Amino acid sequence: MVRNVLRRLLFRAPTALRRCCHGEPSSSGQPQPPPATDKELLARKVRRYTLSRYVFYVRRFEHTLEENFPSAMHVYRVFVVGIKDFYEDLKHFIRVARWINRNGRDGLARNELELHFQMPKDMVRVAPVLLISALPFANYVIFPLAYMFPRHLLSRHFWSLQQRVDFAAIALRKRLYNQRPILRCLQVRLGDLEEGKLRDQWANILGLLGSGAHPNLQQIQQVSGLFAETQAFGMAGLWANHKNALVRLHGMHMGWKRRWRLRERAKLIREMDFMITEEGVTSMSNDEMRYACFLRGLNPVNVKTDELVLWLHKWTLISNNTDDEHLSLILHLPILLGYNQPSNWVLLYQ
Q1: Mean pLDDT, rounded, for 67-92
Q2: Do residue 86 and residue 200 come from a single domain?
């Protein structure tokens, strides 16, 4: 930034002054002017000295502020970098939204799907701060206040890497409290199932979850019929308290059209899972992998990368083999694959 300011100052300076500062010879074919007098030479030296001191001051200005006001400069950088990142994501989000309006979500990459899912939440959180800061002298109040409460008043664009992990863990902890009510609903409905092999297989899965283990992929696929649209655990067969706990487990509000929003969330997660399979789990960065685990109900903090890759691989194998009639299965995967995860229990009871 400082270099750009200096460059503009130099190019806007008079031609004679630039030649004086840089020692550039005259490139025109006109006769050279007569030698300068002592007063003209003195004036040139004064101008050169003044300009050089000004350039030195501009170069040192940011460093001086950093030394004298380190806290203020840190806040300044947080908001400058955050607003720049927010603006770039907003432009990208608008392009993605236009594509979805014309063509649906087909053809979008994984990061574009995640941006379309996350950006509206960030916009709602940051909008009050940006609107209030536009009022006269309001930025002197709202920016320090937002810096004091970044989790509530700012988005991920303004957070540090550690804050992103910490705030995501706090949000996941609130969601995980709904796992036990969902498991209780699944256990209570066991008596409503018809006698047969399917009921026995489901009882075996409930026993594994109750004893601290998880069913394997084959066991989950064998009972996928229970999650069909009109079956006991399908979208149309869920009890009201079961459905409400699922809404809270996936971090959604308790307002209108809960069943429709649950179905749309399952479809979105399935599309993200398909793109993860296409791009490869191992091609994801650590931050992307952590975000994917937080979204799907697994606490990735202090978990080895190999274990995260294996868990996401299991999830995507089930999700990619689930059709529109069994979307409820995707919504229950945080229970079937994550209820007894040690990192989740540490997060809940630390």
Answers
A1: 82
A2: no
